[in-house]
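Our example copied in:
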Amino acid sequence: MNDFLLRMKSLLGDEFDEFLKFYNSDDFIKGLRVNTLKCLPEKLCSLLDFELKKTPFCDEGFYIPSDVKSIGNNPLHHAGAFYVQEPSATSAVTMLDVHEGDYVLDLCAAPGGKSTQIGAKLNGTGLLWSNEIVRSRANILLSNIERMGISNAVVSNCRPDELCKRLENRFDRILVDAPCSGEGMFRKEPQAVDEWSVEHTVSCGVRQKHILDCAMKMLKGGGYIVYSTCTFAPEENEQVCTYMLENYNVELVEPNNLDMLSKGRGEWSNSDYDMSKTRRIFPHKNNGEGHFVALFHSLDNYESEVSKPKKTSMTDAEKVYRQFEKEFLNTELDGEFCLFGEQLYLKPKCIDVDKIKVVRNGLNLGIYRKNRFEPSYALCLALKKEDFKNTVDFECDSEELKKYLMGNTVECDKKGWCAVTVNGYPIGWGKASNGILKNHFPKYLRLKR
């Protein structure tokens, strides 16, 4: 720790004392981001029993009071109404400036905060491709994408150098939230300090450049890449930007929505390049933990071909699903149906995933077995209350909802598949018969007794 602080003192100079005051504080910065696929910020603010304060990093981001505990157990969290996220971490997607219809790659995506932020910006259009190299973390990523109701996503589990061989020049925008030395998170994760050394920051920089090499191969001509880290180290920030400018036909772009943040330090870049268009987040200046973000624009003008969806005849599995849809839903889903084993999926209109290690290709609709269909948790969370013919509605603090989240049955006067909702937001399935709602809330999510 002493070596790290001595280095920060040499970098920050007169700013160091103020940095140290914030760095030694136990008043950690906490926040959440409203999931606009499901609700508006004003609505969520009215449903929570604590005050939310707007952050400068994204329109949907809010600070949480430091005394709020266990917010992940809130039923509205289970319903995907919000994502618990360190406020300044939302700045990277803000800088990426995603538009509806874009094809977007999040190359280092777990646990999913930035991916789900991108998914909300896409609003069910275009494509979100989220990749994570570690399989266990890819499963966590998938769980968060499902909870937030994102239906147009592919989740893959590949090394970047494998992925770029199959997806050359395919994406309009790419986010590289690169693995880093994590200096900006030392306050919250003090164990990470034990791994720190200047040599470690240098080795991280080497890995980050390799990841960006792969990302550039997957970017369309004229596309945009946001490079971000949660570290202060120049070797992983400005000096990586220097590498990009020296080796690719790209330019740094001034973000039009993050003017309040500190500018990158050109004197830390080991070059004559102007780094004032990059952004740094310091805890003593920007009310967020340590982050760095830079937006690159490709000046190449080549285009790529995007695979067109294949026309297929209706399968038995799709017929059974359509019957379920007719009986229990008020909406008709559009897309290409695909059966993997007993799992039925609705594929996004996107890129061919052949020979790519994919964890999930599109929306998991449910299980098709012996000519019957059982809907999935992901399907429930991807729909809105008005999309269901039958709903069982609970308030956030009701005892009946608590019973449901613990896996118990509850009383119900309806028949067949019902969506259980909390304050109007779907949270899981139940199947009603003889006045009882059989519980289909996922076992791995159930509250402990």
User: Anything to note?
Assistant: The first strand starts at residue 30 and ends at 34. The two ends are 41 Å apart (CA to CA).
